[in-house]
From TrEMBL:
InterPro entries: Aromatic_deC, PyrdxlP-dep_de-COase, PyrdxlP-dep_Trfase, PyrdxlP-dep_Trfase_major, PyrdxlP-dep_Trfase_small. GO terms for biological process: amino acid metabolic process; carboxylic acid metabolic process. The modification N6-(pyridoxal phosphate)lysine is found at K309. Belongs to the group II decarboxylase family. Keywords: Decarboxylase, Lyase, Pyridoxal phosphate. GO terms for molecular function: carboxy-lyase activity; pyridoxal phosphate binding. Its cofactor is pyridoxal 5'-phosphate. This is Aromatic-L-amino-acid decarboxylase. It holds the Pfam family Pyridoxal_deC. It comes from the Eukaryota. It comes from Coemansia brasiliensis. GO terms for cellular component: cytoplasm.
Length: 497
């Protein structure tokens, strides 16, 4: 492909993309192919000589498209949204244009400095405590700062790494032992999460080789101070070291919010690191009316949310802030310093060696798509996006209650509605789970909308997450119709068969 062909094909590609979005709602939101379908359509070996570009595009339309689940469809309500937007796609294209690898400032000064700038923009957008910003109000370097990670899972792992480092240093000075002796106690380090915390916390503990306690949540799916304190005192009696606790702002199952002020109290007393995982719901903090729910976050040591869930920037884009970077950078900086300009970091608040804040060495220029998106939407545009979807979730909740056959399983706070057929509606089935599994199957068979199920309190529940940038009231009304029609079919088929 030479530059002239690239020019022509590139323009064509944007047209294909625009055509796709224009008609994305016309596709069933979920792919209806069988496992292994593509294996039969794709040769086992790559082409020996170049394929024709027309063939590649034709194959994409005929072979790849049928196997796509349309996350951007207005009728996609599964999991959490994977929200993208046009400015984000364009920002991603320009990031590919530069294709820089920004591990330190010199690699591409704009990549580092724009990231520092947009992370401060974002921190202010969410109303985060000033400690989390890179540059304070006098233009001086703060101890903390924000950085874009690839995922909430990586952010949690990094928070745990920083927490471990902090605890090791503490043991060194308290017990007056060497760093290596302190590290050797790591098998006694304990991280605390709840049974509603995302599974990435367990993964992080497995990677680090520390212990993890999965504490039962309360009736409102929250990790409470009392439960945490009880578990910690048990562990301390057996000479363990509590070092990390994760509080979730908007759990994956039900968007519940842990007792964050309570967890912050315990973290302070026990010298533990408090990480807040707000992967999905963090975006809502752009609207001040949600900030009351987030009390305690200002006392956390790190905080993370995914723009690629609910804030209009496509994957991958997870925004992490840390109150003081020294533990993380100490843990991650390798001894050999081959990066001669590293000393610049000390001199200027906008200069930072990103490779010491993340797991990979190289990094993508992701700040560009954030910058495009935040500028095209503005604070007001982002708030409107969030509020519209929260309102649609409230509408759906109200309609389901008015219908009379459903119960709402968890408070609807953000864009997620968790519901099920209630006892009465399910009475003919003998089991409420059976009734809801039948309802769920009928909704999937119908295929006009896509939702997934989950287990809440060991009972089947259905989750409808509103959040696609293309979801309008029309789509949510369709969702409601499909749910209620399927409920009618489920109940009548059971009564008459
Ligand atoms: C989605 C989600 C995660 C996982 O996010 P990744 O970016 O895919 O790692 C973690 N925590 C919560 C609360 C989530 O909702």
């Amino acid at each position: 492909m030479d530059i002239e062909e690239f020019r022509r094909r590139g323009k064509e590609a944007v047209d294909i993309i625009a055509d796709y979005y224009q008609s994305v709602d016309n596709h069933p939101p979920v792919a209806s192919v069988n496992p292994g379908y593509l294996q039969k359509l794709i040769p086992r070996e790559m082409p020996q000589t170049p394929d024709s570009y027309d063939d590649i595009i034709a194959d994409m339309q005929s072979k790849i498209s049928p196997g796509i689940t349309h996350w951007q469809s207005g009728n996609f309500f599964a999991w959490f949204p994977g929200c993208s937007s046009y400015p984000s796609i364009i920002g991603e294209m320009f990031s590919s244009m530069y294709s820089v690898i920004g591990f330190n400032w010199l690699c591409s000064p704009a990549a580092t400095e724009l990231e520092v700038a947009v992370m401060d923009w974002l921190g202010k957008l969410l109303g985060l405590d000033n400690r989390f910003l890179s540059i304070d109000e006098h233009g001086r370097k703060n101890r903390g700062g924000g950085i874009i990670q690839g995922s909430a899972s990586e952010a949690l792992l990094l928070a745990m790494i920083a927490a471990r480092e902090r605890k090791i240093q503490e043991i060194c000075s308290q017990d007056n032992i060497s760093y290596h002796e302190a590290i050797s106690k790591q098998y006694l380090f304990v991280a605390y999460v709840s049974d509603q915390t995302h599974s990435c916390a367990e993964k992080a503990a497995n990677i680090l080789g520390v212990q993890i306690r999965i504490i039962p949540s309360d009736n409102n799916f929250r990790l409470t101070k009392d439960a945490l304190v009880a578990q910690i005192s048990q562990d301390k009696r057996s000479y363990h070291y509590p070092f990390f606790v994760c509080g979730t702002f908007g759990t994956t199952n039900t968007t519940s919010i842990d007792d964050l002020p309570g967890l912050a109290d315990v973290a302070e007393v026990e010298h533990m690191w408090l990480h807040i995982d707000a992967a999905y719901a963090g975006a809502a903090l752009a609207c001040p009316e949600f900030r009351e729910l987030a009390q305690g976050i200002e006392r956390a040591h790190s905080f993370d949310f995914n723009l690629n869930k609910w804030m209009l920037v496509n994957l991958d884009c997870s925004a992490m802030w840390i109150f003081d970077s020294k533990f993380l950078t100490k843990a991650l900086s390798a001894g050999r310093n081959i990066l001669y300009r590293d000393s610049l970091e000390k001199e200027n608040p906008a200069v930072r060696n990103m490779h010491n804040w993340q797991i990979p060495f190289s990094r993508r220029f992701r700040a560009l798509k954030i910058w495009f998106t935040l500028r095209v939407y503005g604070v007001v545009g982002i708030q409107t996006h969030i509020r519209n979807q929260v309102n649609m979730a409230q509408w759906l909740k109200t309609q389901l209650i008015l219908d009379g056959r459903f119960e709402i399983v968890a408070p609807v706070v953000f864009g997620l509605v968790v519901f099920r057929l209630n006892e009465k509606a399910a009475s003919a089935f003998g089991s409420i789970d059976l009734a809801n599994s039948c309802l769920y199957q009928l909704i999937q068979q119908d295929g006009r909308v896509f939702i997934v199920s989950t287990m809440v309190n060991n009972r089947l529940a259905l989750r409808a997450a509103i959040g696609s940038v293309f979801s309008t009231m029309e789509n949510v009304k369709l969702l409601f119709d499909v749910i209620t029609e399927s409920a009618t079919d489920a109940i009548s088929s059971h009564i008459y068969n």
